[in-house]
Amino acid sequence: MNAVAQPAAIVNAMTVDVEDYFQVSAFEQCIRREDWPQWPVRVENNTRRVLELFAHKGVHATFFVLGWVAERFPALVRDISAAGHEVASHGYGHERVTTLSREEFRHSIVHSKQLLEDLTGTAVLGYRAPSYSIGPGTLWAHDALREAGYRYSSSIVPLHHDLYGMPTAPRFAFVSEASGMLEIPVTTARRWGRNWPCGGGGYFRLLPYALFKRGLHRVNRHEQSPGVFYFHPWEIDPGQPRVPGVSRKNRVRHYLNLTRTVPRLEQLMRDFRFDRMDRVFLADGQGDYPVVALQPGEQRAN
Fold this sequence. Notes:
disordered C terminus; alpha/beta
């Protein structure tokens, strides 16, 4: 009897948001933007450590790079691209979309795209909003991204969160009916009538690894969909400077379990297959995504 061929394991998207520890939204009440130059910069070395980790594991990823970082470390951006990774935009200065006018947002996405393309010689197709700040009150950003020449956004998380989230949004890749923009949400698992995190970020450090493995396994095996995972270079850096004046909640979110990030990432890359966003979601045969009418609404207070 001939053996029945088993389906190939689904390939997920591995992504990195390239920003430094002092640029995160959780610290914006403690560190003014004009004071950024006073803080020790660690993003270049940490990102190079990430490149070494991926090279060791044979994984290619998408790096959403801040224009602010690209201007200061152009060789880093070139090396990311030369290593076979996708370079995408994280905007210019980590301003949340909710804090920008439409013209300011347009300038950020156009300037960062041109900067990254000039450095890599490759078209920049993807964008991720800082702090996932595309939501009910900022859906106009999708129109601006289309006009600027982006092919996809990965800026929505279908979760309840005090800083971001659009829990009514689809959990998997879809095309916004109003703008025609492809939106690829960070992955969540659906259990007990609600969405649960299994796509990385602080949750990956704060919650047991088994929950992430179970959630992503469910998405791949039972829902037959690729997942989107993300982390930041500062999350592999336990030695980063401690920022004074940070609330207890934000201290926990930012600093807890930094020593566990690399071992967990290594385990994740053993348990699942990963590749770049463009190859997972834009490859031939991957373009038939549902068209969804997102419901605009009032933006939550900052």
